[in-house]
Amino acid sequence: MDLREKAEVVRRLLDAAYPDAQCTLAHNSPFQLMIATILSAQCTDERVNAITPDLFRRFPDPESFARAEIHEIEDAIRSAGLYRSKAKNIQWACRLLVERHGGQVPRTLEELVRLPGIGRKTANVILGNAFGVPGLAVDTHVARVSRRLGLTSHQDPVSIERDLTALFPPESWVRLSHQLIRHGRVLCHARRPQCAPCPQKDLCDHYRTRTRSGGRKASPR
Q1: Residue by residue, what is the 3-state secondary structure of the chain?
Q2: 6 annotated active-site
Q3: What are the mean pLDDT values of the chain's consecutive 10-residue runs (221 residues total)?
Q4: Where is the HhH-GPD domain positioned along the sequence (predicted)?
Q5: In the CATH hierarchy, which fold is given to the domain comprising 3-21+137-212?
Q6: Among this protein's residues, is 139 annotated catalytic?
Q7: What CATH topology corresponds to 30-130?
Q8: Does the global pTM surpass 0.70?
Q9: Assuming Cys at both sites, which of 11, 46, 116, 126 could form a disulfide with 89, CB separation 3.0 to 4.6 Å?
């Protein structure tokens, strides 16, 4: 089985295991998703979802964030962690939306990554989930699972994204990212992966390494 054939089997198994995998950041618009992705840095989606309902009632649009006092934003997002830098990024991103984009979230990767607090991963989240533009967001779960499966040997997210997008069809990229994240959270944990019930184990380089070592602890990769 070559790597492309392996990727197709991985995709089918993920579809069977996680048919309903989707973005877990609650949002009703591209703008709300943009703010949620900024807040999600080093913060759980659950915590972000607890913050955003009140946040969006107080600041429903880019204009309201842009004209707010910075301490008002900080107070509203304090429990997300790194709240000072996140508040600054949110306000400056919103000012740029108002000044350069007519108050609308841009629809291209190049424009999104120019906004404060938006990197390539979060830009792909916004493009895929708000606009239906194929994009593959690589977070720590996606990186770990794809390396363990032998779909990439790289450590940096851009190279991992390039490897995965070369193996999988564009129409699967958004769903695949959510499925790999779910798999990483449910079974393929960083320190103690649950290999026995994993439907991918027969394809998994990491599992084969553990099996050959007699179950001794292998590198988390």
Answers
A1: CCHHHHHHHHHHHHHHHCCCCCCCCCCCCHHHHHHHHHHCCCCCHHHHHHHHHHHHHHCCCHHHHHHCCHHHHHHHHHHHCCHHHHHHHHHHHHHHHHHHCCCCCCCCHHHHCCCCCCCHHHHHHHHHHHCCCCCCCCCHHHHHHHHHCCCCCCCCHHHHHHHHHHHCCHHHHHHHHHHHHHHHHHCCCCCCCCCCCCCCHHHCHHHHHHHHCCCCCCCCC
A2: no
A3: 95 97 97 98 95 98 98 97 97 98 97 97 97 96 97 96 97 97 96 94 91 57 56
A4: 39-186
A5: Endonuclease Iii, domain 2 (1.10.1670)
A6: yes
A7: Endonuclease III; domain 1 (1.10.340)
A8: yes
A9: 116
